[in-house]
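From the methods appendix. Each design record in this collection lists the discretized structure first, followed by the designed amino acid sequence. Records were kept in a plain field format so they could be parsed without special tools. The example shown here is representative of the layout used throughout.

RECORD:
C-ALPHA CELLS (206 positions):
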C-alpha cells in the first residue's frame, strides 16, 4: 500500500487550498458543514442512484452537456464514501445562467466557484449524498477525472492500492474531509502520470 503523506505535506496542501479562497481566486459559498469521513462497502445501489441523477440532470440541462459518473462510487468493487460524484461538462463554464439555477432547482446548491470548476452539493445540515462538478468540455479537469476513473477500472492492483490508502486516510482524518482529500493527492497525481502513458499507448480519449 502506498504510504500516506506526512502531516506536514497534508498541511502544506491545505494551505495552498485555503489561500486560493482567501486571495479571492476562488470562492466558497455558504456553510461548509461537518460531515464525517465514513467509507462504505460497494453496492449496486450507487449505480442505480447515479442513473436517477443522470436522468434528472439531463432533463434540466438538455442535450448540450456531457454527464459522467466519476469518483470512487464509479469504480466497481471499491469502498467509498456513499456520495455520488457527477461530472457535468458544459460548452462554457463561465455561462452560469446555462446551469446554476437549473442544478439548484434540483436541490443541489452551489458551494464553490473555482477557475474552470463549479461545485454543487446537498444543502449543509442534510446528509451529503450527491456532489455535482461542472467543468469545461475539453478541459484538464474533465480529462483528469475521466482518465483516473478509467485507469482504475482497468487496473485492479492500482485500485486495491487506492482503496487501502483511502481506508488509512479515513482513519487518520475521520472528521476532516478536506484533509482526507488532500492526503490522497500525491497518489492521485502519481496515478495520473502513469495513466497518461497508458492513454498514449492505448489511444484512450475522454
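DESIGN:
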Amino acid at each position: 500500500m502506498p504510504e500516506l503523506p506526512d502531516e506536514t505535506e497534508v498541511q502544506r496542501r491545505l494551505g495552498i487550498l485555503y489561500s486560493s479562497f482567501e486571495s479571492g481566486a476562488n470562492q466558497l459559498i455558504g456553510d461548509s458543514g461537518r460531515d464525517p469521513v465514513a467509507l462504505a462497502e460497494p453496492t449496486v445501489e450507487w449505480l442505480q442512484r447515479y442513473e436517477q441523477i443522470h436522468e434528472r440532470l439531463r432533463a434540466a440541462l438538455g442535450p448540450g452537456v456531457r454527464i459522467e459518473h466519476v469518483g470512487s462510487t464509479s469504480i466497481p468493487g471499491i469502498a467509498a464514501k456513499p456520495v455520488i460524484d457527477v461530472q457535468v461538462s458544459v460548452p462554457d463554464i463561465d455561462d452560469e445562467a446555462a446551469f446554476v439555477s437549473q442544478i439548484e432547482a434540483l436541490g443541489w446548491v452551489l458551494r464553490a466557484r473555482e477557475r474552470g470548476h463549479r461545485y454543487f452539493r446537498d444543502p449543509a445540515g442534510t446528509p451529503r449524498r450527491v456532489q455535482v462538478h461542472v467543468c469545461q468540455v475539453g478541459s484538464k479537469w474533465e480529462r483528469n477525472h475521466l482518465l483516473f476513473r478509467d485507469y482504475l477500472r482497468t487496473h485492479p492492483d492500482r485500485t486495491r492500492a487506492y482503496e487501502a490508502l483511502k481506508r488509512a486516510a479515513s482513519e487518520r482524518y475521520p472528521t476532516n474531509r478536506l484533509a482526507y482529500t488532500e492526503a490522497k493527492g500525491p497518489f492521485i497525481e502519481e496515478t495520473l502520470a502513469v495513466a497518461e502513458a497508458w492513454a498514449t499507448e492505448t489511444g484512450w480519449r475522454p
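APPENDIX NOTE: Helices lie at 7-22, 45-61, 100-104, 140-154, 156-172, 177-183, 185-202.
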